[in-house]
Amino acid sequence: MSASGSDGRRRHEPRVSVVVLTYNRCNWLRGTLRRLVELPERVPIAVVDNGSSDGTADMVRAEFPEATLLRLPDNIGAAARNVGVDWARTPYVAFCDDDTWWHPGALTLAADMLDRHHDVASLTARLMVVREGREPETDGISHVMADSPIPSAGLPGKAILGLLAGASVFRTQAYRSAGGYHPRLFIGGEETLLALDLSALGWRLVYCPELVAYHQPCPVRAHRLRRRLLARNAIWSAWLRLPASAALAESLRTLPALMREGGLIGCLDTVRGLPWILRERAVIPPTVQALRRYLGPPQPR
Question: What is the pTM of this model?
């Protein structure tokens, strides 16, 4: 084969894979997959099924044979995304939840940006919330990211110290080097720890409003449990990575939310994590602590 022929084939190999995380939301997943298979990029798609019992696996096999089904025996939460990254053979991986999807052309744009910016680990999209009978609106968290005060010179968007798990494109190598999502966090605020770990390794995280993803919130959610885990995981992540004074401040800030959403059970669950947290504790370097200071003092939850 000639060199030019080899180069031509490489140019047409996919650069981005899409990993969709789902659990017992078969009909919502169906809508997401319909949109993903119609993307002009024709990207490889994997559905990581977190042990669903509502016929999700059968639906994917019957209706979307072009998608790879990675079915887990149990629900392991956000860490199931790691299974999708292990499957991926592309340099970049885009994530979706079963109620989020990507705008046509966004993944090509993301790959082009990551090709040019070798120090960037992740690009987080502008998330548009879709509600019936209304025009899509930019999610509030996207407005927060757009106002990030962290210096952003030379980056393809705003430097941030966070992620949106269901609307980010990762450099596969960077994700793997940071270990992906921590299995003990399960779900809720799992992005915080991964963002700190990526930054500690020297990677940059970027919010890029030119990239667009959509979120049609599914009403089938255990809202109170998720809020309880969100508070617990904020405290756990703080003690895993922040200096003691900052971890204590984060704990005191989060404690009212933990008490409100979880009561005594939530507090006991949080305290039970102390032994393994002390074993795994690794304080972020001064460079990442400096990035946190740009964000100012956190507000009470």
Answer: 0.93
